[in-house]
Design goal:
CATH architecture: Alpha-Beta Barrel
Order of helices and strands: EEEHEHHEHEHHEEEHEHEHEHH
Structural class: alpha/beta
CATH topology: TIM Barrel
Shape: globular
Largest sheet: 8 strands, parallel, barrel
CATH class: Alpha Beta
Helix content: 25-40%
CATH superfamily: Aldolase class I
């Protein structure tokens, strides 16, 4: 199981938000490229890179930074934030992004999504961002009347088999993972046979142990953001736990 550090970019800086809210922002570095390099140096096998400005505006904003980070790393990069057109996916592919996250367009533009999947199926990951039991899109600004299972059904129907489940209620709160809720979600979608990455609420090593126990549901990794920057969790210790039976 992968431990995937998150680098979120807002106004050119590396930040973390609480529950996706811009008014609850903590700036951790003015140099996201340096931070990305640091995670690779410390042993990360993949980086989770998000353009928050892209997510909020609906169009990728930080092309120069994204390109610099890609050029600076040798590990795979998973990128999201404002990916709502085939042309954007083509550009991200051209600069070498390994996994491309989509979400909003699955609901807002199914036809464009089909075009993307037809050309880049193996690179596409869908973010399933859940707030109070419903799917959130548009940079987490909008709630749609779909629960996780209903949304995942749409994803599977498109031919995509990789998803990220984020518990927005816990995201950036440093309150720990809601293990029972996550297990319930995984039970609901277990028959789809998906590759799953979890996100939201990881705070301590105990959270990593809880998630490690969910590997049988297809959990392949966990994204960690604020807990790494606030140092409530040791990245190296997390790696040791996930590598024990790998």
């Amino acid at each position: 199981m992968l431990i995937i550090p998150a680098v979120d970019i807002h106004h050119g800086k590396c930040v973390r938000l609480t529950q996706g809210r811009l008014d609850q922002e903590t700036i951790y570095s003015n140099d996201p490229v340096f931070v990305a390099r640091l995670w690779q140096t410390r042993g990360a096998k993949m980086l989770h890179l998000i353009d928050l400005d892209g997510a909020y505006t609906g169009c990728v904003q930080h092309w120069e930074l994204i390109t610099k980070i890609r050029e600076s790393l040798s590990i795979p990069i998973q990128f999201g934030g404002g990916v709502r057109k085939l042309s954007t996916v083509e550009k991200l592919n051209k600069i070498g992004i390994d996994r491309i996250i989509i979400s909003t367009i699955v609901v807002s533009n199914p036809e464009e999504t089909k075009k993307i999947v037809k050309k880049f199926k193996n690179k596409i990951v869908v973010a399933c961002d859940v707030k109070e039991g419903k799917i959130s899109i548009g940079g987490w600004k909008d709630i749609v009347p779909l629960n996780l299972k209903e949304f995942v059904q749409k994803v599977v129907d498109l031919g995509i088999n990789k998803i990220i489940i984020t518990d927005i209620d816990k995201e950036g709160m440093l309150e720990g993972v809601d293990g029972e809720k996550i297990k319930k979600y995984l039970e609901e979608i277990k028959d789809f046979g998906l590759e799953i990455i979890l996100s939201g609420g990881v705070t301590t090593i105990e959270d990593i142990k809880k998630i490690k126990e969910l590997e049988t549901y297809g959990v392949k990794g966990v994204i960690i953001g604020k807990a790494l920057y606030a140092e409530t969790i040791s990245f190296e210790e997390a790696l040791k736990i996930t590598n024990k039976s790998s």
